[in-house]
Design brief:
Elements (H helix, E strand, L loop, with lengths): L13 H62 L4 H6 L26 H16 L5 E2 L2 E2 L7 E5 L5 E10 L31 E10 L2
Antiparallel strand pairs: 1-2, 3-4, 4-5
Helix pairs in contact: 1-3
Amino acid sequence: MNSNKFTTSVLPTPRLRSAQQGITLIDALIALVIFSVGLLALAALQTVSKQSNYEAMQRTNAAMYAYDLIERMRMNSDALASYMADPILSAPLAVQSGPCITCAQPSTCTNCAVTAANDLFEWNKMVLGDAEKSGASSVGGLLNPSICLAGPGTKGKYTLAIAWRGQASIPITGTPANTCGSGLYDSAPGAGDYAYRRILVLDTYIGQ
């Protein structure tokens, strides 16, 4: 009787090897799907991030423009009524041809009312982005801005509201406290929801 022991190994059948290969392929497909979903989420996040950055930049510019106009009015407080009456401050803000012939440069303004006209003319161009152009279009300012200035025309409290169009629709219910730009930024004509309106309101006191 032969006492030697022999061990034999059983090789996987072709069917078993085929099943193992199939499982590996499924794993790869699942990983690819998960990776693709992650990329889509990352792309969506990038879009939201760019939109948020743009909205923040617009609000920062609006604050800068608001303080600029208020300081111009403080420096020329004898002509506060002229700032209030000038049609340049409007909703929506429109391109102006010029304040007056005698005030082509700030240094030539010797009359308070003329200085006010020149201030508003230069400020109008700044808000509309005249310093930065793409072709013939101004692109450096606020998008479709509206300006609303309320005050006594003499020393006292003034409220400056700057409204512009945002990129995302954020409807509101009811009537807001400040209605500057009413009807210009709705989700649909006549909706009254101010859905695309972004607004900055500055309250200040100007003495003479």
